[in-house]
Amino acid sequence: MAIENIPEIYFDTPSKSKDIFVYDFKMTNDVVKSKVNLSMNMFSFLQVGKKQVHFANTSKAVNSEQSLLLKKGNWLWTELLDTEAIYYCKLFFFSEKKLTDFLSKYTKDVKPYQEKVPYFVIENDDYIASFISSLSSKTFENSAYCDAMLSLKFEEILLYLLDKYGSEFEHYLHALIFKEVSPFKNIVEDHIHSNLKLEEIAFLCNMSLSTFKRHFTAEYKEAPGKWLKDKRLQKAKELLQGGDLKPSDIYLDIGYNNLSNFSIAFKNKFGISPTEI
């Protein structure tokens, strides 16, 4: 799976940087899963379809009644068609400089939330729907006042959301420019019981697979593949011992593509098949 550098892949002139940028995104495939290097903070105003995003320490799914404000970074996201024949959203990117200028103008110095939540969920309402309708790359691309108009749209939506969500949103905006590196161990251990592949966890750590393996072995004194496999199988055993779940209910969630491979790995580790628990 190739890495998509966003929003650069949408620029007509890739070398030209922008402080604010709008892109109308449409898709007709059933499912598109992408590795995304998001280099700017971004609103994803979802209109038709569904989106699921895996972050370093959590994941979030939204539908067409919601939008997301995403912090820049490395994410895995999946875009899905809903009942319609197309997935459609509007992406609104903005630089840290624009956000810093806005916060200096309209807010006080506040301490950002300490929780490492890289997204803010926005519940779409009539005002936001109207705003989304007015936000189109075609509206601005041929205007001599493009940058000025987009700056006003940027301030408009932030002021509206500040009014709608109050201090919660204000804290989140400050968190977007708060410099903090996600600890390696937190990312790894938040995904012990996920179904993400090793290379996908490495991507969320902003590392190549080879660098991730070296770093992991130095940190945990064990190869990551074996360590994660043992942890996930132990979790599977605990779930099965609870008595409410069958092997067919859990094998996908702990990283196995089919029930047969899960059963073999489980028996090799514990000496009995998962159906015997």
From TrEMBL:
Domain HTH araC/xylS-type: 182-277
PROSITE patterns found in the cross-reference section: HTH_ARAC_FAMILY_2
Keywords: DNA-binding, Transcription, Transcription regulation
SUPFAM superfamilies to which the protein is assigned, alphabetical: Homeodomain-like (SSF46689)
Keyword flag Endoplasmic reticulum: no
Molecular function, one GO term: DNA-binding transcription factor activity
Pfam families: ExsA_N, HTH_18
The name this protein goes by in its record: Transcriptional regulator, AraC family
Protein source organism: Cellulophaga lytica (strain ATCC 23178 / DSM 7489 / JCM 8516 / NBRC 14961 / NCIMB 1423 / VKM B-1433 / Cy l20)
